[in-house]
UniProtKB/TrEMBL annotation, chain A:
Domain 2Fe-2S ferredoxin-type: 1-78
Record-linked SUPFAM superfamilies: 2Fe-2S ferredoxin-like, CO dehydrogenase ISP C-domain like
Species annotation: Streptomyces sedi
Keyword set, alphabetical order: 2Fe-2S, Iron, Iron-sulfur, Metal-binding, Oxidoreductase
Protein name: (2Fe-2S)-binding protein
InterPro entries per the UniProt record, alphabetical: 2Fe-2S-bd, 2Fe-2S-bd_dom_sf, 2Fe-2S_ferredoxin-like_sf, 2Fe-2S_ferredoxin-type, 2Fe2S_fd_BS, Beta-grasp_dom_sf, Diverse_Oxidoreductases
GO molecular function annotation: 2 iron, 2 sulfur cluster binding; metal ion binding; oxidoreductase activity
Automatic annotation (TrEMBL), chain B:
Stretch list, region Disordered: 1-32, 440-461
Gene3D superfamilies xref list: Aldehyde oxidase/xanthine dehydrogenase, a/b hammerhead, Aldehyde oxidase/xanthine dehydrogenase, molybdopterin binding domain
Domain Aldehyde oxidase/xanthine dehydrogenase a/b hammerhead intervals: 38-144
Coiled-coil boundaries: none
InterPro entries (UniProt xref): Ald_Oxase/Xan_DH_a/b, Ald_Oxase/Xan_DH_a/b_sf, Ald_Oxase/xanthine_DH-like, AldOxase/xan_DH_MoCoBD1, AldOxase/xan_DH_MoCoBD2, AldOxase/xan_DH_Mopterin-bd_sf
Protein name: Xanthine dehydrogenase subunit D
GO molecular function per UniProt: iron ion binding; oxidoreductase activity
Matches recorded under Pfam families: Ald_Xan_dh_C, MoCoBD_1, MoCoBD_2
Length: 165, 720
């Protein structure tokens, strides 16, 4: 079948999609967007997290056909058109929240969604929002640092000239 | 002797060491950080090639069986299938292995564990490959399953590798024993002690559970060789094992590191490597193989499960007189790195303590359980859980504070290990314990907020299983000793390597010393902790002062001092390059009615020698501590007596989430290790040791239960 969807603001379509393929597979293997990761394929790890019409979803659990006509946002769409990092991306790099980085795309999408909802999240809010994203390397301390940093900068944008690396 | 003073030159690790701008000691960003936040970093599973096929492995559903027949015709007939390979198609060597060549590339007439590779498929879509693999007809005749020490060493036990020709085969007590290492010190047979405690402990099988699955892309080359892009820990060891299997000279087996999504030891052994190359060479097409999580659980080695028996004898004032211990590790069907794991367990088996009389024995068994090999803290993790439980038991028997007991016996620089190896670098065991003990404790009942109960802080979390009744707090301590090598994989070597190279370029030869090479090369002048020192120990200048800012053209190589194998009978020998030490204090809230545990805080103190990149060092300690937490209360590969894995998925095998891992305050010491460049000491493994016993000690304090196995599950706390 053919699947047409908008990814990071651009309309894209994929042909010869087998009905059993997931949105994750189509993004990675058919649309040349391997940024979303597959670490479990069954909705447990959050590495494949994308926004689907604004909602956070595990793209490994979304059949590609279900995404027909939808807006999808992936890690490749976080930086702006000139390639400048989004604040949450910059914060991840600066605090050392990126180690092997396999969890990072999913965590970025989930953290971005949290910060759009909650201006000054408490640690408990951050933990709750990121509970669906496994990370095996960091022990999460630097991930918390990154979200705290991005939240602080969002409420006091002029405070830190080092905003973008 | 009581309190041990802090060693000289004690420094705390800040974010950036003074004078470290741009060099060793400065926290810097990972060179690959930006690529990883934009999704542009190419992990091995992201690699593509025009024209590529997808490879798939058919694996054994049985733990032990004879293969009666194998028929690939139906699979080959499926449209889109390009190749189906079995043992009969192997072009050259049929076995490989890290230390012993005992592992079949594809099973011949026998499978020895669930998940053993039996056939390979290459097809034009991963789904086609999956279906084709299911069409390979294999007739198995199940055999009796060897699953523990009793079944492995029974007089009529099936011998799993009857034709062993490895270098340990002649020295083991039974052919199903992979390797055995005793360590003897003093006179353990005649040693007597006023207070004696004994205990038997169990450590479950666990998985490294890196997130990036095993992946390789093999591309056949014009010269008849192959180019393999693969996520691995040891390119050279891979090449050494691969070339004979492919029947190619090593020069024609070219490996390139693909982006690695975590390793923790599980990528020391081959996974997709040989299979992807065989399919590529057979079809003449690029072949990509990526494991899904289920296959990853069955397709790589795990942490050895262990049973451990200990007896500790001490004087009435709490000085260890002797330790006797026996550690039985289950290697599963193949040896992998078991001899190294056994060596670690035996040589580090009494922990970071001074013990005059020691009788330790560690061994690994061949069974039909999943193969086990390297995982962060190999061998030392299992031992640490048991010897720290014993120290707590001893503290109770002596009615002594558990930290005080440890401090009285704490190893320090100049002491001798049971292997006879002198500890010739800082060993601040007592100081690390003091640091974690002296931290303020987190406030009690954290779920009580001004306006009610925040269930997120309760042991049951958002499950709303309680409102805080029946919750008891516990505090526990653990400290461990680990050996350190300089292998890639656990520590943050990608960053450290670049940082050191950067430093050499800024500071190295030929700086202002160019006109004075004779002096520079003068015999006896040495570099110690970044300073130029005369044979009499006089510091002439710091290297930075001496060498200035000029650029360098030469790269220097450092080779760590040699270690030697332990004596087979006595375990004596200079076996370890370095030791590293970490201590933890765990604070837990336990719902004793429901058996739920929440770790409230996990404080660590560690000596890292020299933090080349302090932020990376902290990340290593945090990550290792979280993995220790996983072993304490969550993670176990459940294997039945049939040798079958019950939980090969992230649905059932639980690794800690951000809700499970508490705040982890750190104290990092930098006591330069004189035998390593920059005084560095590997940081990544030690924190994985002591977190587990500290957490279990805290749960014991809360529940007053003996808790002799990890992970601790709710039913162990409620007795249900
Ligand atoms: S890959 Fe989708 S949740 Fe793990
Ligand atoms: S950085 Fe490796 S899994 Fe999170």
């Amino acid at each position: 079948m053919r699947v047409t969807l908008t990814v990071n603001g651009r309309e894209r379509s994929a042909d010869h999609v087998w009905e059993g393929e997931s949105l994750l597979y189509v993004l990675r293997e058919r649309l040349g967007l391997p940024g979303s990761k597959n670490a479990c394929g069954q909705g447990e790890c959050g590495s494949c997290t994308v926004r689907l019409d604004g909602d956070l979803v595990c793209s490994c659990l979304v059949a590609a056909g279900q995404a027909e006509g939808c807006e999808v946002r992936t890690v490749e769409g976080l930086a702006d058109a000139d390639g400048r990092l989004a604040p949450i991306q910059a914060a991840f790099v600066e605090t050392g929240a990126v180690r092997c980085g396999f969890c990072t795309p999913g965590l970025l999408l989930a953290a971005e969604e949290l910060l759009a909802r909650v201006e000054r999240p408490a640690d408990a809010d951050i933990r709750e929002a990121l509970a669906g994203n496994l990370c095996r390397c960091t022990g999460y301390e630097s991930v918390l640092d990154a979200v705290r940093l991005a939240a602080a900068r969002a409420t006091a944008p002029a405070a830190d000239p080092e905003r973008r690396p | 002797m009581g309190v041990v003073p802090p060693p000289d030159g004690l420094t705390r690790c800040g974010d950036t060491a003074p004078g470290a701008a741009g060099g060793a000691g400065e926290s810097t960003r990972r060179p690959d950080g930006v690529l990883k936040v934009t999704g542009d970093f190419a992990y091995a599973s992201d690699l593509r090639h025009e024209d590529m096929l997808w490879g798939r492995t058919l694996r054994s559903p049985h733990a032990h069986a004879e293969i009666r027949s194998l028929d690939t015709a139906e699979a080959l007939a499926l449209p889109g299938v390009h190749a189906v390979l079995t043992h009969a198609d192997l072009p050259a060597a049929t076995h490989y292995g890290l230390e012993f060549t005992d592992q079949p590339v594809l099973a011949d007439d026998r499978v020895r564990h669930q998940g053993e590779p039996v056939a390979l498929v290459a097809a034009d879509h991963p789904e086609t490959a999956r279906r084709a693999a299911a069409l390979v007809r294999v007739v198995y005749e199940p055999l009796p399953v060897v699953h523990d020490e009793a079944t492995a060493t029974a007089p009529d036990a099936p011998v799993l590798h009857p034709d062993r020709d490895d270098h340990h085969a002649a020295h083991v007590p039974h052919p199903n024993v992979v390797y055995r290492q005793p360590v003897l010190a003093g006179d353990p047979t005649h040693a007597v002690a006023a207070v004696v405690v004994r205990g038997d402990y169990t450590v479950g099988t666990r998985d490294q559970a890196f997130l990036g699955p095993e992946s390789g892309l093999a591309v056949p080359a014009g010269d008849g060789g192959v180019d393999l892009h693969v996520a691995t820990q040891r390119l050279h060891a891979d090449q050494r094992q691969l070339a004979p299997v492919l029947g190619l000279e090593p020069e024609r087996v070219r490996l390139t590191l693909g982006g690695v999504g975590g390793a923790f030891g599980a990528r020391e052994d081959l996974s997709t490597q040989a299979h992807a190359c065989l399919l590529a060479l057979h079809t003449g097409r690029p072949v990509k193989m990526v494991y899904d999580r289920h296959e990853s659980f069955l397709g790589h080695v795990h942490r050895h499960p262990a049973t451990l028996s200990y007896e500790h004898g001490a004087t009435l004032d709490g000085r260890l007189v002797y330790v006797k211990g026996r550690i039985v590790l289950d290697s599963g069907a193949y040896a992998s790195s078991s001899p190294a794991v056994v060596g670690n367990a035996a040589s580090l088996g009494v922990g970071p303590y001074r013990v005059p009389h020691v009788a330790m024995e560690a061994l690994a068994l061949y069974t039909n359980n999943p193969p086990c090999g390297a995982m962060r803290g190999l061998g030392a993790v299992q031992a640490c859980f048991a010897y720290e439980a014993q120290m707590d038991r001893l503290a109770v028997a002596l009615n002594m504070d558990p930290v005080e007991l440890r401090r009285r016996n704490a190893l320090t620089q100049g002491d001798t290990m049971p292997t006879g190896q002198r500890v010739d670098a800082p060993a601040p065991v007592a100081e690390l314990l003091r640091l974690v003990r002296d931290r303020p404790l987190p406030p009690p009942r954290p779920w009580e907020t001004g306006d009610g109960v925040d269930p997120r802080a309760l042991p049951g979390g958002l499950a709303n299983s309680s409102v805080g009744e029946g919750i008891v707090r516990g505090v526990g301590y653990g400290v461990g000793i680990e050996n350190v090598g300089f292998a890639e994989g656990f520590d943050d070597h990608s960053t450290a390597g670049v940082r050191l190279a950067g430093d050499r370029m800024r500071r190295g030869e030929p700086g202002p010393w160019r006109g004075n090479e004779a002096a520079w090369n003068a015999p006896g002048l040495r570099l110690v902790g970044g300073e130029v020192v005369t044979p009499r120990g006089e510091v002439l200048a710091s290297l930075a002062e001496v060498l200035g800012e000029e650029a360098v053209e030469r790269e220097l190589e450092f080779r760590h001092r040699p270690a030697e194998p332990f004596d087979r009978a006595t375990g004596q020998g200079f076996g370890h390059v370095q030791y590293s030490f970490c201590a933890h204090r765990a604070v837990v809230d336990v719902d004793i009615e429901l058996g739920l545990v929440r770790v409230v805080e996990l404080a660590a103190a560690q000596d890292v020698g020299r933090a080349i990149n302090p932020r990376a060092a902290r990340g290593q300690i945090h990550g290792g501590s979280a993995q220790g937490l996983g072993l304490a209360v969550l993670e176990e590969i459940l294997v039945g007596p049939d040798g079958l894995v019950r939980d090969p998925s992230f649905t059932d095998y639980l690794i800690p989430t951000i809700l499970d891992v508490p705040p982890m305050p750190l104290d990092i010491l930098e006591l330069a290790e004189a035998h390593a460049p920059y005084g560095r000491c590997g940081a990544g493994e030690a924190p994985t040791l002591s977190a587990t016993p500290a957490i279990v000690a805290a749960i014991r304090q809360a529940t007053r239960l003996p808790l002799t196995r990890v992970p601790v599950r709710p039913e162990h706390l409620t007795g249900t």
